[in-house]
Amino acid sequence: MIKVFLVEDESIVREGLRNNMPWQQHGYQFVGEASDGEMALPMIRKLKPDVLFTDIKMPFMDGLALSRIVSKEFPDMKIIIISGYDDFEYARQAIQVGVEQYLLKPITKMTMTKVLSELKAKIESQRQQRNYQDQFQDEMREYERFSRRTFFEKLFEGHMSVQEVYEEAEKLGIEINAPCYNLIFVSLQERRKQENRYQESREFAGKQDELLRYLLRYPEHLVFQWNINTYGILLKGESAQMEELTSRCMENIQRICQNADFEFDWYAAAGTPVERLSFLTECYSNVNHIFSYRFMMPSVHILTEELLGGVRTEKESSIGVVDSAKVDPEILKEFLITGRSDEIEDFTESYLQSLKDALHSKLFRDYLTLSIRFTTIAYVERLGCSQQEFLEALGEDRLQEADISAEDIHGYLSGMLRKALEIRDLESDNQGKKILKKALDYIERNYAQESLSLNSVAGAVNVSANYFSALFSQEMQSTFIEYVTQRRMDKAKKLLRQSEKPSGEIALEVGYKDPHYFSFVFKKTQGCTPREYRSRFLS
């Protein structure tokens, strides 16, 4: 029902309009009335009607003054002026205010019926357009996430000037300007068996959602997905508040992640605040280095510069006092499984830093280099690469571990890791390509089904929706919904060119039950209506 409010100082006219019009029959609900604008305004603010009928000449506050206030506070409200004054100046002012119509008294029932019918059609059309816009925006949210990630990636790696940062942020609707910034990375990964590595449990997905709901609650958090398992939070605020903002965020991440009745790995790292956008590359480098310590300190979930400062000052005078946990092969295994190629240098540096004094012992270096070799080879063999293939791929004959000096061990470790991650990522790419091919085949067979969704395709190829979304956008350089929408539009354009089928029938053939929404999406993506597109090929 469309809600109507009436303001009229003449009680006979007001009662006549209220009682003699079959409001409900025309799709309206009469929600209130007042004798002047002053009395009407608080009632309008409370009831929020869709349509306001108001006289133009009233005591205390006239109809034009009321209309100015209402049109400013409620721009979607339709205002109808009713007046006994056939005066051009009144009409001109009413037009300036933005009223729908200017009706002269006496108003006949036939006139009101016509006005109500036209108004109802206009309101319903506008509501439908808003619904279509909301639906389209919901569908394009995935694109927004992809665009945000790309933006922050370029920002942190220094690929944009400050002016370009502001321009791109404005396009994406990101309020980036602030006196001070800090960066937090938080990683969540469910412990899964190898055969289920692309799936996730309902409990884990729920924990991710809980964390995101918290992070998105505050305007000072600019949240983006960095990779499949990691989220970034760019904190912005006053310099004096940044320490408090960082602590609050880290504490709440800890509260949410610790409060779980199932096992998963999680880590959060905070950088050092900076006061310029151009310094964010340094902040990013800093937090990336801190984040790499999650492999050396798997039992420590909150990683900060202060914490690591204490770790780095620990003195180890000889091999005899080296903490055996620091040379546990599991540290290397975990990095080989979950580390990224751009983390190799930070990981290598932090890993060897923790063993710094012991590296002067040749006996310890021999043990460490053999451990690195055996651990890495065992990992690549599980990927299907033989030891001989791996060693040949390294392209080195210097794998005589006993000859490696303390200065050379950094290059030895990073080289082994880099080649192992290349093999891992190639295997993952091959597996991803197989999954993607199955997904694209499934989409091609089912894009005409309105029920097709990212979740349904992920289920069809037996991977998690989160993994599939990241895989699809990375490989296709397009989000899932962009791809499906474009596939539907391509088919629709072909049918418009090569057949005489009405657009409603074409809409059904390409996956839209609502032909009006199909037309809306077509115009939004192609820049013209289906009818206009077809006419270009008929003329």
Give a concise summary:
This protein has 22 helices and ten strands. 56% of the residues lie in helices and 11% in strands.
CA-CA gap between termini: 43 Å
The biggest beta sheet is recorded as: 5 strands, parallel
Helix content: 55-70%
CATH class of the largest domain: Alpha Beta
CATH superfamily of the largest domain: Reverse transcriptase/Diguanylate cyclase domain
Q: What is the oligomeric state here?
A: single chain
Mean pLDDT: 85
Which features characterize this protein?
539 residues; alpha/beta; Rossmann fold; Alpha-Beta Plaits; 4 domains; 5-stranded parallel beta sheet; 22 helices; 10 strands; elongated
How would you explain this protein's 3D organization?
It is a single chain. The chain is an alpha/beta fold and 539 residues long. It has 4 domains: 2-139, Rossmann fold (3-Layer(aba) Sandwich), CATH 3.40.50.2300; 159-309, Reverse transcriptase/Diguanylate cyclase domain (Alpha-Beta Plaits); 314-446, no CATH class; 472-538, Arc Repressor Mutant, subunit A (Orthogonal Bundle). It is 56% helix and 11% strand. The chain is built from 22 helices and 10 strands. It has helices spanning 11-20, 37-47, 63-73, 88-97, 109-139, 141-156, 162-172, 202-215, 242-258, 280-291, 305-312, 329-338, 344-353, 362-382, 387-394, 409-446, 454-460, 465-476, 480-498, 503-509, 515-526, 530-538; strands at 2-7, 28-34, 51-55, 78-83, 101-104, 180-190, 221-225, 230-237, 264-270, 302-303. The strands form 2 sheets. Strands 2-1-3-4-5 form a 5-stranded parallel beta sheet. The chain has a 5-stranded mixed beta sheet with strand order 7-8-6-9-10, sandwiched between helices. Helix 10 links the parallel strand 9 (264-270) and strand 10 (302-303). Helix 6 (141-156) runs antiparallel to helix 7, helix 8 (202-215) packs antiparallel against helix 9 (242-258) and helix 12 packs across helix 14 (362-382). The longest helix has 38 residues, at 409-446. It is elongated and about 105 Å long. Mean pLDDT is 85; it is low at 314-319.
